[in-house]
Every structure is written in C-alpha cells, then in structure tokens.
C-alpha cells in the first residue's frame, strides 16, 4: 500500500503543485488549508508524512507541528517561504524533521520526502536540537 | 630644527635683548643719577604686577595687555633703565603669581622689558626738554611715539613667537580683524597710561583718587566681559552640540528606516518565495512530465499560473523600488493607492493580521511617494505589533471638506495616556510588548514627514481598547477609481490570503 502525505498549505497553487508532484511520484495525498483543518485531516487519514507551510490562517505551521508532536511521531516537514536561521531553529524546536525553503526543486523535494518516509521515528514526542552542541574535545 | 629648540632660542634672544636694553640704558642714563623717588618705582612695579595678575579679555582674539597702562606711566615718568626694570619686575612677579610655565615667565618679562625700555629711550630722546612731564605739543608727540613703540613691539614680539611655535603657516591665519580689535584696545590702555602719568606728574596722590573708581570699574567691567565671553562660549558649544545632535538624529532616522527595511526583507522574501515556488513548481511539472502535461488541457492553466505569479512578484518589486530608492519629488499621489502599496510591502510580515479596507474616496494629495509609503508601513507595522494573531487592522481614507483624511485603526493593546502625550518625541515607544523593543522612531518619523507635507497627525488611544492614528493632508483633488478596483473580494480580505480556492 502506498504511503500518504498530508499537505498543509493555504495557497491553492502551491497545494496543487505539491499534490501533483507527490501523486505522480506514487504517493497518496490529502490536503488542508490551515493547521486546524490539518489536525482533523490527520486524525481521519493518519498520514505517514506531513508537509506544512508556516504562515497560515487560524493555526500556523509551528502550532500545528507542536500539536502533532503531542499526538504522534509522524515525520514532519516544513516547506516555507521563510528562510532565516531563526525560522529554521524555531521549526526544529517545534519538533520538525526537515525544513525546506521555497522555491525548492521537485527532485530535491521528492528525495527528502522519500528519505523521511523510509526512516523510522521514535513514538515519544521528540525535542530535536537542530545543532550539535558537542565540542570537538568532548567528541574525542 | 624642532619646535622646542626654536622656542627656546627665540626666548633666549628676547631675554638677551631685554638684558642689553637694561644694560645700555643704565649706562647712558645711569641709575645713580636718577632723582626718581623709590615709592614711585614700587608703585609702578606694583601696578604692572596687579595689571598682569588680573588681565582683561575684551574679545576672544585679543588678550588685552592691561599692564601697558602702568608700563607706559613708567616710560613717561622715570628713566629708561628704571622703566625697563619696572616692566621686567612687574611681569616676572605677575607671571609667577599666575603660575605660568618658566618659558612664559621669561618670554613675557623679556617682551615687557624690551617694549618698556625701547619706548622710554624713544620718549627721552624725542622730548624737547628734560623737564617733568607736561602737556606741551613736543612732549605729547614724544609720548605718542613712545606709545607706538610699546604697541608695535608688543604685537611684533608676540606674533614672532606664534610663527616660531606654529611655523610660517601662522601667517596664513593672519586676520586683519584680529589687529583691528587688539590695536585699538591696547591704544586705549596707553591713553589711560598717559592720563595716569600726567596726573602723577601734577601731584603724586592724584592717581590714587582716579585709581579707586578705576579699579571698581575694572572689576565690574571684567565681570561683564568674562560673563559675556562665557555666554559666547556656551552659545558656540550649544550650537556645536545642536549640529552634532542633528547629524545623529538624521542618522538614526535613516537607521530606523533601514531597520524597518530589514524587518520587511523577511516578509518580502517570503512574499516572493511563494510565487517563485509556484512558478518553478509548475515549470517542473511541464518540463519533467512534458509528455503528459504539455499535451493536457492543464498546460494552459499552468502557464496562466506562471504569468499570474510573475505579475505578483513584479508588483512587490515595484513597490520595493519605490520605497528603497526614494525620489524627493513631490508628486500627486492617490492616498488609497499608496496605502495599498504599503500593505503589499508589509506582506506576511511577523504574523497574520486581517486588513479591513475602508477606502471611501480616492483623495489626491501632493507628496513624496516613498515618504508616504514609509508612514503607512510604520503605522501598519505598529498596528500589527499591537494586535493578537489574526487580530484586525482597519485602514481607510476619505475626503472631509478640503482635507484628505487617512486612518489606521487597530483593536490592540492601546497606549497609556502618559505615553500618548510624548508619543511623537524620538525614542518614545510602546513596543516592549511581545519582547520587541523598537527604536521609538516610527511615529516620530511619521510626525516629521506629515508636518513636512503640511499635514497633521493625531492619535486616539485607550489602554486595552486599541489605537487610531489619523492623518490629515491638504487635498489636491479626488481620483475616479474604476469600479472593478473596488473588488468585493478585496474588502475584508486577510492579507495573508493570496490565492484561495
């Protein structure tokens, strides 16, 4: 059975592009236009991966990611127009597994999707540190 | 030859010349033959000391040599060698009392000795008879020549010192005004000296009667002069500080604009990244799935999408150019359009805010496009800071009598009245909410711009209830806006929503 990707994106065109890309690559998709819709959709469809924008009405991507983490360990990817280090750090702090910045190439996107889907993630809510804090001395 | 060496060489020369003058005059007019009473010499030396100890500065350029008064009295009353010694002794004692450096003590006493001694030689040589000082024409001419000698030697010897220490460039700074102040000032003192000498010649006690009011006048005058000098100094300091402050202020306003550009950059990058993604995503589909997609009926839709997204980006960049490279020209501007461009520029900044538009009219104003944009950007970003996520901002404009009125209203946290009173002052702000501290220059800048456009800006705000900023500008007409511009979809549309199903 093919895996399901939940696309959370408020812009129709972007949603449509992602849907087409993923479906042509052989995945099932479902979509939502904001975080709240995504939570309902996720409960119903139990997706294998969530791809979400950050800036969305009603519930933004950060909030969605945080809530998803409390419910499941489904891999979570941000795909957003915000490319700053602050946004990335915040995204990983919320528990995301991947942070891609638009515009992203179709092949790169699909590659990351396939990587995320092939890994297994712990079921407890992870708080993933984006940066290794180990100093070279400690590593030795 | 270094400065130190030149200075000391010159000082040594001056001291040597002064010593020779004393020696030569003492030989020609021996001190032993002098009939001058000792009290006269002591009085004159005392007066030179006093005048040297309490100089008077009538202007910033001219250091008044008050001591030429008693020095000139000595020239006219005693023998040349005695006059030179009076000048030397008075100068040394007063300089020591003033605790000036050794080189200044030596130089000043040298100058005084030369000026006094030389002037005394001139006077004694020129006066018609060797009688006591009197008011004959010949005596007065000789006194005039002696006065000119003191004046000239004083100026020349001091100016040479300036050249020795600062080099020949000093001559480039030679200012005629300087001598215009200094020469008459010293000439005035010499006249007082002449009067003092004449009085002393008539009766030894006569100068004392004149001296008492003169001393009182001197201290009163000195006080006024030093106060005036202090005020002049303070005023020039103040002017300098003011200029510096103006520079800092201009710099800060620019920084504030740059900071808001920085904040905007994130929002703008996001605004552009989204359509770019849509364009490249559609292109990817057409390129990588050419067989399937190019032939399908969807291909045309994809191409339209690309076109639409490109238009969206060009709109953003146009507004950005207007903002980033401002012209200073005053043009006719449609208020609602400039407000709309600020909304576009702000894009999906920090958070999502609903923008409610109430453009009743399309008033035309005259102004600098970029500055007007900056006003509304500042007001919109202030409003966005004040409201919670998905709070609303109302913007609108209308015509009221002969005035164009624009307003930005939020239902956010509002401002306290004490803050409101000072809100247009620089560095006053309320943005410490949400842990964001602004520079406090946003509203200050708005106020400056609006005032420069002959308009007025007012703020109504209540803590906890929200804030309305109203701007009134002179009206230059009303634009006719085509109906389709006022699209129902545009009204009450959250700005975060670009393309909806």
Q: Helices and strands in order, then pairings?
A:
The complex is a heterodimer of chains A (140) and B (501).
Chain A: E1 4-8, H1 12-24, E2 28-32, H2 35-45, E3 49-52, H3 61-71, E4 76-80, H4 85-93, E5 98-101, H5 106-118, H6 136-139
Parallel strand pairs in A: 1-2, 1-3, 3-4, 4-5
Chain B: H1 3-28, H2 38-53, H3 68-77, H4 80-97, H5 102-126, H6 137-166, H7 169-172, H8 176-202, H9 206-288, H10 290-293, H11 298-324, E1 331-334, H12 335-346, E2 354-359, E3 363-367, H13 369-386, E4 392-400, E5 403-410, H14 417-421, H15 442-452, E6 456-462, E7 466-474, E8 477-478
Parallel strand pairs in B: 2-4
Antiparallel strand pairs in B: 1-3, 3-8, 4-5, 5-7, 6-7
Overview of the molecule:
The complex is a heterodimer of chains A (140) and B (501). Chain A has 140 residues and is an alpha/beta fold. Chain A has one domain: Rossmann fold (3-Layer(aba) Sandwich). Chain A has six helices and five strands. In chain A, strands 2-1-3-4-5 form a five-stranded parallel β-sheet, with helices on both faces. Chain B is of the alpha+beta class. Chain B folds into two domains: 3-204, Arp2/3 complex 21 kDa subunit ARPC3 (Orthogonal Bundle); 327-495, Heat Shock Protein 90, CATH 3.30.565. Chain B contains 15 helices and eight strands. Chain B has helices at 3-28, 38-53, 68-77, 80-97, 102-126, 137-166, 169-172, 176-202, 206-288, 290-293, 298-324, 335-346, 369-386, 417-421, 442-452; strands at residues 331-334, 354-359, 363-367, 392-400, 403-410, 456-462, 466-474, 477-478. Chain B is elongated.
Key terms for this structure?
heterodimer, A: 140 residues, alpha/beta, Rossmann fold, 44% helix, B: alpha+beta, Heat Shock Protein 90, three-stranded antiparallel β-sheet, 15 helices, 63% helix, disordered C terminus
């Amino acid at each position: 059975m093919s895996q399901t990707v939940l696309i959370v994106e408020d812009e129709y065109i972007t949603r449509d592009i992602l849907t087409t890309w993923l479906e042509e690559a052989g995945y099932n998709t479902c979509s939502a236009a904001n975080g709240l819709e995504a939570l309902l959709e996720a409960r119903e469809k139990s997706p294998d991966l969530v791809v979400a924008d950050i800036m969305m009405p009603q519930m933004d991507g950060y909030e969605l990611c945080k809530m998803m983490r409390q419910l499941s360990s489904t891999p979570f990817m941000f795909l957003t127009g915000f490319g700053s280090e602050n946004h990335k750090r915040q995204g990983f702090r919320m528990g995301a597994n991947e942070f891609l910045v638009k515009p992203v190439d179709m092949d790169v996107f699909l590659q990351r999707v396939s990587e995320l889907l092939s890994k297994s993630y712990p079921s407890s809510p992870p708080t993933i540190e984006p940066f290794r804090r180990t100093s070279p001395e400690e590593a030795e | 030859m270094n400065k130190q060496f030149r200075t000391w060489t010159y000082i040594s020369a001056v001291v040597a010349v002064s010593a020779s003058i004393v020696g030569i005059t003492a030989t020609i007019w021996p001190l032993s033959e002098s009939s001058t009473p000792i009290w006269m010499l002591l009085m004159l030396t005392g007066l030179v000391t006093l005048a040297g100890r309490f100089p008077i500065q009538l202007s910033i350029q001219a250091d008044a040599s008050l001591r030429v008064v008693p020095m000139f009295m000595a020239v006219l009353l005693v023998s040349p060698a005695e006059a030179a010694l009076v000048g030397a002794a008075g100068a040394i004692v007063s300089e020591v009392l003033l605790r000036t450096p050794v080189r200044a003590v030596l130089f000043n006493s040298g100058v005084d000795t030369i000026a006094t001694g030389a002037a005394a030689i001139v006077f004694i040589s020129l006066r018609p008879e060797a009688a006591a000082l009197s008011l004959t024409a010949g005596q007065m001419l000789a006194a005039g020549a002696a006065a000119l000698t003191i004046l000239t030697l004083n100026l020349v010897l001091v100016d040479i010192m300036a050249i020795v220490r600062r080099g020949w460039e000093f001559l480039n700074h030679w200012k005629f005004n300087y001598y215009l102040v200094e020469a008459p000032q010293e000439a005035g003192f010499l006249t007082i000296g002449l009067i003092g000498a004449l009085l002393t010649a008539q009766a030894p006690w006569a100068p004392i009667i004149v001296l008492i009011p003169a001393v009182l006048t001197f201290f009163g005058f000195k006080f006024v002069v030093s106060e005036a000098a202090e005020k002049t100094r303070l005023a020039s300091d103040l002017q300098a500080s003011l200029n510096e402050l103006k520079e800092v202020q201009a710099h800060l306003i620019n920084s504030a604009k740059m900071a808001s550009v920085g904040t905007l950059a994130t929002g703008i990058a996001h605004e552009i990244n989204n359509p770019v993604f849509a364009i490249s995503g559609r292109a990817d589909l057409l390129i990588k799935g050419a067989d399937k997609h190019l032939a399908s009926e969807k291909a045309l839709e994809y191409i339209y999408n690309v076109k639409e997204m490109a238009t969206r980006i060009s709109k953003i960049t146009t507004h950005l150019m207007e903002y980033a490279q401002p012209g200073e020209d005053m043009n006719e501007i449609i208020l609602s359009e400039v407000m709309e461009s600020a909304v576009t520029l702000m894009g999906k900044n920090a958070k999502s805010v609903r923008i409610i538009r109430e453009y009743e009219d399309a008033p035309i104003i005259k102004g600098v496009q970029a500055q007007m944009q900056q006003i509304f950007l500042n007001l919109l970003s202030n409003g966005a800071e004040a409201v919670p996520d998905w709070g609303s901002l109302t913007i609108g404009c209308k015509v009221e009598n002969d005035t164009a009125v624009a307003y930005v209203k939020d239902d956010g946290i509002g401002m306290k009245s004490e803050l409101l009173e000072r809100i247009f002052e620089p560095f006053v702000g309320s943005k410490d909410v949400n842990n964001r501290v602004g520079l406090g220059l946003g509203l200050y800048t708005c106020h400056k711009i609006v005032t420069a456009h002959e308009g007025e800006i007012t703020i109504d705000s209540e803590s906890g209830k929200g804030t309305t900023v109203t701007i009134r500008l002179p009206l230059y007409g009303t634009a006719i806006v085509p109906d389709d511009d006022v699209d129902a979809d545009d009204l009450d549309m959250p700005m975060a929503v670009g393309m909806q199903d």
